[in-house]
Amino acid sequence: MKQLLQSLKDGTVTLVDVPAPRLDEGQLLIRTSTSLVSAGTERMMVEFGQANWFERARQQPDKVRMVLDKARTDGLAATFEAVQSKLDQPLAPGYCNVGRVIEARTPGFAAGDRVVSNGAHAEIVAVPKNLCAHIPDAVSDEQAAFTVLAAIGLQGIRLANPTLGECVVVTGLGLIGLLTVQMLKAQGCRVLGIDFDAARLALARQFGAETVNPGAGADVLAAAQAFSRGRGVDAVIITASTKSDEPVHQAAQMCRQRGRIVLVGVTGLKLSRTDFYQKELSFQVSCSYGPGRYDPAYEEEGHDYPAGFVRWTEQRNFEAALDLMAAGALNVAPLISHRFALDAAPDAYALLSSGEPSLGILLQYPGADALGNEAPPARPIALGAAAASPGKASVVFLGAGNYAGRVLIPAFKAGGAHLQTVVSAGGVSAVHFGRKYGFAAAATDSAAALADPVVDTVVIATRHGAHGAQVLAAFEAGKHVFCEKPLCLTLTELDAIEAEAAARPSQLLMLGFNRRFAPQTSRIKALLDPIAEPKSFIMTVNAGAIPADHWTQDPAVGGGRIIGEACHFIDLLRHLAGVPILRHHAVALGRHPALAVWEDKATITLEFADGSLGTIHYLANGDKGFPKERLEVFAAGKVLQLDNFRRLRGWGWKGFSRMNLWRQDKGQKACAQAFVTAVQRGGTAPIAVDEIFEVSRVTIEIASELAG
Asked: What would the pLDDT profile of 132-161 be if each residue is shown by its tens digit?
């Protein structure tokens, strides 16, 4: 299928072949008939891509600080590669999609239904149910394409809470502004529209608004005063996009006592206290489509809010906008300025940055008259590289996220693996990294990829909650398995994997515990092994904060940060000690109202069979400017200190004082190389399976202890 992708490096938009997306539970698979290019948001992304480095930095000061912090701790080379990798990944633009359902894995929708969603510009999209709505028969596909933008304006209106007869100013008469004008009129409000564009002002007047053009020399404040009969306007809804603070300042000046200002667009936010203090004005920033936006439980997991408590959600705002269209209260036909066939979609984006007047730009898709209940198209697509012969470490990658694309895939390529197929849920990242690194195919169907007889090796780099089932599926398919940590999230899964591995001794199992393969780790190991007496290990991890609603913190999806990341350091100490872990204990910070998560601020103690003691301070409450990982080892009157896998220092060692690297090396390449070599030569796995299972079990038990 065809999909539009946008480059962050230069803003260019291209139409590419990608595999059809995978349909998960709670989603709809939709064949697109029409989509709308957002002249605001999508133009902004094009302009950002076309901007120079200085301008990008000026627009994103928070990101600049993150880059500088990373450079101080990880070095310039690693930081540069991370930034380039991020910019190299394409965006899938679009969020105003209309089509027919091909397949539904949720109640309330069926094949053939006509729906609107926030899906991207693609022939086929997979969208969670709460971001979809049925289209009434009286509403055409072209009309329905404006639903999502109308919902954005509608949410701004709901926050402004106008009553019948109030006078409201709409600043900025783009698509959202003109839709907002009409919905305010439908609610019985008097509306004054402000813009610099004469054509858009004319449309606003057509919809029943009075207008003022500051570009023609009109006094906006005087016009608002006259419009409000000298009282000041009741509310201002700002739908403009500008770097200036003037729209907010102007809104405050034209409001009455205790007036309301709602920001829907993007403006400067240097507020004047005097403006707001004297009139006791309220100011609120609207969050896109409405309640539920950016809530994973609502958007991704499909948990709706009770209508009795949250009357208007994203989905219900979609429905309300569609109802207004069906009733004739929302007329979008005059807002359509251009139509492009999908094949000419890049021309639509060129139009955005050309300076030529445009408003609503529709993309029209082939096969729009299809019923929509046909079988989904074949998902894998060939990328051009030749297929491999079996038995040569021919690899299928499950997962193509940032870490896989930036680190794992190039490590396996450098290690000599043949890259056969890369799989991702949406297909976009699979195609991007597949083309970049020379895979033979990209796909969204993992089962079909596992069944490929050419493939003898599976690399699992998906979200943590999927690892256990995918490891078992790969074993059952007769493949060698490399799983990025963690191996699984539960002891039940671990028992099943352990039993399966025991029954298949010829199939290698490897976990991505890369730090034991780092060159400085190897040097530490060589120094410690001759020492017969117990050793003391102190591992300090400045993990950095991750929000409580991030997927890694979800027990079912990410397993939490102890299972998701701290396992690395448990394994590192187990490797350096060289003997089993006999006992373990963990304690987290006390539960406090200021802490949404406490398990990621913990101290873990490991007791080893030879009397060695390991302490891991895994802390998410530090400053990012401090090195992330520091290991200290005390043994036989000697000390070793490793900082962030860049600087290793020793005290008391004969013939050793330091081993510093010009760039950080956490062992990812060496880890992949060792595994690929074992597959190709028929050797044993680079990490003994009993150590993999031991560390995995200890980690799960520690996470359970901390949660309990």
From this structure: 999 999 999 999 999 999 999 999 999 999
Q: What is the DSSP letter of 52?
A: -
CA–CA distance, 6 with 121 (Å, rounded to integer): 11
Angle between helices 175-186 and 314-327 (to 10 degrees): 70
Q: In which band, very low, low, confident or very high, does the pLDDT at 626 lie, cut at 50, 70 and 90?
A: confident
The DSSP result for 533-559, as a single string, is S--EEEEEEE-----TTSGGG-TTTT-
Q: Which amino acid is at 413?
A: K
State the burial class of residue 577 (Cβ atoms within 10 Å of its Cβ: 0-12, 13-18, 19+): buried
- The rounded radius of gyration (Å) of the Cα atoms in the chain is 29
Distance CA 206, CA 210 (A): 9
Residue 681 CB contacts under 8 Å (≥ 6 apart), including other chains: none
Query: At 647, is the pLDDT very low, low, confident or very high (cuts 50, 70, 90)?
Result: very high
Q: What is the rounded CA–CA span in Å between residue 173 and residue 240?
A: 7
Instruction: Please name which of 402, 441, 436, 438 lies closest in space to residue 19, comparing C-alpha atoms.
Output: 441
**Token output for 395:** 């690899």
Q: Spell out the residues 6+ positions from residue 168 whose beta carbon is closer than 8 angstroms to its own.
A: 160, 162, 184, 189, 190, 191, 192, 233, 234, 235, 236, 237
Per-residue pLDDT tens digits for 561-605: 999 999 999 999 999 999 999 999 999 998 888 888 889 999 999
> pTM of the entire structure?
0.86
Q: How many residues does the chain have?
A: 708
- DSSP H or E stretch at residue 522: helix 519-528
Instruction: Give the amino acid at 438.
Output: G
Give pLDDT, residue 49: 54
Query: Could you give the CA distance from residue 194 to residue 445 in angstroms, rounded to a whole number?
Result: 50
Percentage of the chain exceeding pLDDT 70? 91
Tokens describing residue 25: 């539970």
**Which pLDDT belongs to residue 371?**
47
- What mean pLDDT value characterizes the chain? 91
Q: What is the pLDDT of residues 337-383, one digit of tens each?
A: 999 999 999 999 888 878 788 899 999 998 755 544 555 565 788 88
pLDDT exceeds 90 at position 622: yes
Quick one: which of 37, 36, 47, 57 has its CA closest to 12? 47
Section 645-655 average pLDDT: 96
132, 117 Cβ separation under 8 angstroms: yes
Cβ contact 661:645 at 8 Å: yes
C-alpha dihedral (660, 666, 668, 673), degrees to nearest 10:
40
Give first-to-last CA distance, the chain, whole Å. 48
Q: What is the DSSP string of 104-166?
A: ESSTT--TT-EEEE---SBSEEEEEGGGEEEPPTTS-HHHHTTHHHHHHHHHHHHHH---TT-
Question: What is the number of alpha carbons within 13 Å of residue 659 lying toward its C-beta?
Answer: 19
Rounded to the nearest 10°, the torsion over CA 16, 19, 20, 25 is -130
- Return the structure tokens found at 265: 């667009």
457: CB partners within 8 A, 6+ apart:
393, 394, 395, 396, 417, 479, 480, 481, 482, 679
Rounded to whole angstroms, how far apart are CA atoms 139 and 10?
37
- The structural domains of the chain, ordered by start, are 2-146+332-364 (3.90.180.10), 150-285 (3.40.50.720), 381-508 (3.40.50.720), 515-707 (3.30.360.10)
Among 600, 587, 585, 517, which Cα is nearest to 555's? 600
Spatial separation of the C-alpha atoms in residues 148 and 95, rounded to whole Å: 7
Spatial contact of 685 and 510, defined as CB atoms under 8 Å apart: yes
Contact 171, 192 (CB under 8 A): no
